[in-house]
From TrEMBL:
The keyword Transit peptide does not apply. PROSITE patterns: EF_HAND_1, EF_HAND_2. This is EFCB1 protein. PANTHER family: CALAXIN (PTHR23055:SF60), CALCIUM BINDING PROTEINS (PTHR23055). It comes from Pardalotus punctatus (spotted pardalote). The keyword Nucleotide-binding does not apply. Residues 66-101, 102-137, 153-177 form the EF-hand domain. Keywords: Calcium, Metal-binding, Repeat. GO terms for molecular function: calcium ion binding.
Length: 189
């Protein structure tokens, strides 16, 4: 009986299981959107995915995300196989966390976005890099470095860098810190 299933059913069922925050019809819609984006990209990936530019345009138009540095990092977190393109599996599973992830999943996702070099820590330099893009408006009497000094307070073990454990503790204490280094989640709307 499994052999007679129409093409695509296996993919839909598989993604409904792996991207556990979406039901079957939502997964089908996301696959159709993926196919539309692949067609729009006219890239050399030929059906296997779409590139950074199409991804950024999609997130910009769907969620109003505009920060280029953050969008590049979001692309990198979706592109789990580091192939320079987003596959259908990466697309659906990434959106599951982005749109409906648990607090735990969103913390891991945001931490990965901010960990620019992927070493498992957010260094002072990485904080500065992310903050200088997201802190566009500074109070007149506050130096940009002050915002960074305030955020270093969440370095609970005082080793000069944020581990995921530091980040998680800070976010659990104050949920606004989830996007402390720049907006990388869509608005609740």
């Amino acid at each position: 009986a499994a052999m007679s299933r129409k093409p695509g059913t296996f993919l839909v069922d598989s993604l409904t299981r792996s991207a556990k925050h979406f039901n079957k019809s939502e997964v089908e819609c996301l696959i159709k959107l993926f196919d539309t984006l692949v067609a729009r990209s006219r890239s050399h990936f030929a059906g296997a995915g779409f590139d950074r530019i199409v991804f950024r345009d999609a997130l910009h138009s769907a969620f109003g995300m505009t920060d280029d540095v953050v969008l590049d990092r979001v692309f990198s977190t979706f592109d789990t196989h580091n192939k320079g393109r987003i596959s259908v599996v990466e697309w659906v599973e990434g959106l599951a966390v982005l749109l409906r992830g648990t607090l735990e999943e969103k913390m891991k996702y945001c931490f990965k976005v901010y960990d620019l070099n992927g070493d498992g820590y957010i260094s002072r330099e990485e904080m500065f890099q992310m903050l200088k893009n997201s802190l566009l408006i500074q109070p007149a009497d506050e130096e940009p470095d002050e915002g960074i000094k305030d955020l270093v307070e969440i370095d609970h073990d005082h080793d000069g860098k944020l581990s995921f454990e530091d980040f998680e503790k800070a976010v659990r204490d104050e949920s606004l810190l989830l996007e402390a280094f720049g907006p990388c989640l869509p608005d609740i709307k």
